[in-house]
Structures are given as C-alpha cells and as structure tokens.
Amino acid sequence: MSETQLKILIVEDHKALAENLYEFFGQNPRYILDFAPDGLTALHLIAGHHYDIIILDVMLPGVSGFEICKRIRLDLKQSTPVILMTAKDLLEDKETGFGVGADDYLVKPFNLRELQLRVEALARRHDKNNAILTSIPGISYNAATHSVLVNGYKPLELTGTSARIFEQLVNAYPDLVSYDQIAEAVWGDREVDRHTIRTHAYALRKLLQQQFGKPLIKTRHGLGYHLTAPGEPE
Fold first, then answer.
1. Can you tell which superkingdom this protein's organism belongs to (predicted)?
2. CA distance 75 to 24
C-alpha cells in the first residue's frame, strides 16, 4: 500500500450518522476506525491509544465535545488533530471550539466527501509540522519536539544526548545500532569511549522505564542497542 494508514476515532452518539461515517470511511483500507458513543468512552480510548485524527461530535451525553477537546489538550497533553461536528453554527460556538483546541469545525449537515478532504488535509499538516515517525507498533516519536508517545499515552519530551540516541534507535528499528554508529551520529568526530555511551544509554533506558513502565531499550552486550516495541519480549 502506497499510503500510510490513518487511525481515526469517531465520537458520535447519533446511530444513523455514526453508521454512515463507518460505511463511508470503512470501505477505504487507508482508514482504521474506532468508535465511541459518548464522551467518557472517548476519553478512555484517547488516553490509552494513539489516533491520527479524532472526529468529535459536540452534543454528546455526559461530557460535551468541547470539554473532551479541552481535556485532550490540557490533561492528556496530546496534539492529535480534532475535527468538531455540530449543528451549532453560530460564530460564538466556533470560537468556543477553536478556543478549546479544535483544529477544524464542520457544521451539520455536511457532505461526507468534504469531511474526508478535511481529514486528509489535517493529516498532511500534522505530519509535516510534527515530523512524527510511526513505523514502530505502539511508539511514536516527534522529531521536532523530541517527544515520545507509547500507545498514545503519557508523552515524554527528551533532551540533548538522550533525544539523539533515541532517534537513532527509532530510525534503525528493529535492527541493532552499534556503539560506533551511536558515537558517530551523536558525537561526530569527537572521541568517545563505550563507557560514556553506556552511561547515556542507561540513563535513557531508566527514563523510559519510569515514564512508561517499560524500558523499551534492549542491550546487546558488546554490540549495541535496539528498541523493543510494547508487547515484545525485552
């Protein structure tokens, strides 16, 4: 497949519209779909999974779409593009939506093809702006902000040497990165011994362990390091 798949969460309590959205997007293998009929279910899914786009109804039972969007940005610290859907077409409503962090606002009724165009436009913009590498199951790395996401939950921003080492491991996955490769990529022409590399790799491994409950880095003694995706044996 030439196109990268997009994982989309659809949050909609109106059964007929939800079914239409599922039928329309589901016929295209580019899209992987999840569904939530209410705000609390949506928040649970968003906290535990990575999504490329969230299509979010405003008028939901329990927690409104405005509140969900606000929690995505402030509590979960996620930058996942959000498209709000609503019959509320007043300027004040749109100001509220964009004010809580929405990326787009689509007034009902709308053409499904228009929604698809907006999904694709947001996906392109998000990839370009954030340079997210998603080749590892369960792990995303934002090369622009040096932020690591594991299963879309608990972002960790790396700095300095840790960020450069992690990026080498991401780019090489699932292959091993040797001590010499790390030294050249991180320190360039400077002389660096293996003890220094091991010290930095250990610090990075410990940081990932504390944040995600899994170290993610496997040591091959005498050779180097490689990443292990969530669920793989360490």
1. Bacteria
2. 32
Which residues pair with residue 136 across a beta bridge? 139
CB 67 within 8 A of CB 39: yes
d(CA 65, CA 41): 12
Q: What residues contact residue 111 under an 8 Å CB cut-off, 6+ apart? A: none
Three-class SS state of 99: helix
Residue 106, number of CB atoms within 10 A of its CB:
15
Write down which residue in 80, 99, 130 finishes a domain. Answer: 130
List pLDDT tens digits, range 109-156.
Answer: 899 999 999 999 888 876 655 555 555 777 888 776 778 888 766 678
Domain residue limits at 149: 134-227
Q: How far apart are CA 75 and CA 157, in angstroms?
A: 16
Q: Exposed/middle/buried for 85, CB within 10 Å: 0-12, 13-18, 19+?
A: buried
Contact 87, 107 (CB under 8 A): yes
- Clarify whether residues 48 and 155 are in a common domain: no
